[in-house]
Design brief:
The complex is a heterodimer of chains A (293) and B (465). Chain A is mostly helical. Chain A has 14 helices and 2 strands. Chain A has a single domain, classed as Orthogonal Bundle (MetI-like fold), CATH 1.10.3720. The longest helix of chain A has 32 residues. Chain B folds into 2 domains: 191 residues, D-Maltodextrin-Binding Protein, domain 2; 211 residues, D-Maltodextrin-Binding Protein, domain 2 (3-Layer(aba) Sandwich), CATH 3.40.190. Chain B starts with 15 loop residues before the first helix and ends in a 6-residue tail after the last helix. Classes of the chains: A mainly alpha (293), B alpha+beta (465). At the A-B interface, helix 1 and helix 13 of A face helix 3, helix 11, helix 16 and helix 17 of B.
Chain lengths: 293, 465
Amino acid sequence: MTTGPARSLLTGLAWISPWLVGVALFTAVPAAMSLYYSLTDYTLLEGPVYIGLDNYRELGGDRLFGIAVRNTLVFAITASLSATVLSVLLAVLLEQRLRGAGLVRAIVFLPTLVPVVSACVCWLWLYNAQFGLFNSVLAAAGIDGPDWLGRRDLALPSLVFMSLWIIGSPLLVCSAALKDVPAALYEAADLDGISRLGRLRHVTLPMISPAILFNAIMSIIWSLQVFAPPQIMTGGGPENSTLVYSMYVYWNAFIYGRMGYASAMAWIQMLVALGLAGGVLGLSRRVIHYRAA
Amino acid sequence: MPGLPDNPNMRPGVGRRAAIGALATSLLAAGLWPRRARSREAIPEGRVIVDYWEKWTGPEGEAVQGIVDRFNTAQDRIWVRRLAVSDIMSKAMVAIGGGDPPDIVGLYSYNIPQFAESGAIISPEDLATPTARLAPESYAPAVHRLLSHEGRQWAGVNTCYSLALYYNRSLFREAGLDPDRPPATIDELDAAADRLAVRTAGGRIARAGFLPNLPAWWPYFWPIMFGGRLYDPDAHRAEVAGPAGVAAYEWVASYPRRLGASATAEFGNIYNRSFHSPQDPFISGRVGMIVQGPWIANFIRLYAPEFDYGCTPVPTPEAMVDPDRPVGMLEADVLVIPRGARHPEAAFEFLCFTQRPDVQEQLATEHAKSSPMRSVSAGFAGDHPNRCVDVHDRIVKSPRVQILPQTRVWQQYADSMIGAFDAIWAGADVHRTLAAAQSRAQQLIDQSRQRRLQRAARSGRGAPA
């Protein structure tokens, strides 16, 4: 008969067993299977045939794979950087006891509740070159607006800009962290005669740096997996300028019937995401300020 | 390690409220749990249920439901249950691979090589009986080619479509063009396009005469109209970069060169998402001529019944013009019986029913398409909602009509042509762009054949043709 800590452990495991079973069945087993499939020629319609590292070798010569990697990295870096910086700035602004700050916070958060497909359709209209809101505003100012999603130099930046639409979640995380900054630190800074900018730099940012790190990592992971906006809004065009990694994985798996090749791509994607997140965590040791418990 | 301190306010076990709440939730769930599938309520007892996945929704879905209803009332042994499924090829692939397919699926004819080579579908020839079989001779020859792969028929047809040039007769009159004499050659098409085009003061295209990038659905179509082909099935070679392909895309590139790459791309982007809606660029008069399938007639009936339109085979270079034997491209929606279907014989009986000429005529009429069968009844064209059905019929039955490449990597080949078309439109070198697209397609074709040989060798099957 088990007693003490062992019994507590077993009880704990029993209570979280639905989650454990779920993770094992729907994450661990499929992940292990996809690793195996990445070493096979698997068309979905026929059983997998082992081909060693051929899928990984083929990726090296696949021009579209290279384009998808480049586009995704550009998107991930610019989108996560913009979202992280903007969420901090907005959160700091909304902490300034301005009238209607609560309403603004609610409005900024609201888009995260809109289904992504509906949001994409709305943004398609906003970006429409002839009838869209952006170009109408530009036209009112006498500027001939461009074809945002139709030009290869503007399509990806337009998607990055659109990604800021769902800045509500990181903003909330930053807002919560700001409320946790001890008032005594600001008082001390005031006594030392530090300017507002100095307070932001030497007090606020270090104190909320764990929240910024969290936002940055989540944003990197999300943007490396971006799929729906380019799939719905541009289909990867023009000239593959918005072809992103997850789209190419999806096409290979479910349109071209190349599940083995898609699995190899997915594993590389996971390793890159892990590497980037790990890199950010490693770099963060120097700049992130954790308060003592 | 010390345990958690006991909380004096915490009662052991589950609280009374939580227990009552759980019980009430369970009773509610039990009460709401469906006793039987709602969709089965109308199914007569004793029938074999055939699950049929089809891509169409809306009026096109209702039309195919009409065929299903006709079959269900025509006999008392089988009940076909139609389910509208989007993204049908992917879902069929997953269902068949997962061992739980429907009994019959409506795919596209270009899916046949992939599904047939994988052994994922049952050839109707294997299900034929002395009294029930599909008759190859009943189809238009090109349609039968679409249904077949490597010498075997793998599917039944479920309407077909060819592409034609639709034109706005009112705009023709307004521009001083003769609406009874539509363009037949590429030169005439270009001249008419120039006459129909209208620009704003700012240089934007207010109305296009004709644009090869509108719609952007068939970027691989133009080599066919210049006498080329996309694929040599005997040599298993991609051929888009041949002389006809180069000539075709040089002509395509002449449009952005003449009208401005950004202005034409912008116009295409604005309207490529408006098709089949009241803002359809052709129906709303934003473009004077457009390459479309016969279904456009149904959308005209729906959104602009008074719209005055005409239709003609898509123009070709002058040397290729032959009104009786038009050049064109043919595609079909097909019905296949998946491997692992629960009731393949019953599905085959439904398939045979759908292949009757009168049934295909009914469906084709409601879809505004031409019939895929070799011959049609006397009243077919007279009662047809598409005033241009004779044009499509001529293309379907023309000896010069081409079908899409019958290779399992066609989808990838086609997708690579989207990028190539975009690049050419933006000003890239035609030769180099087509050579790159052809090279990638060839690589995929070769790899697919090599892997098929490997599979055949492993399974002990003979080498494929």
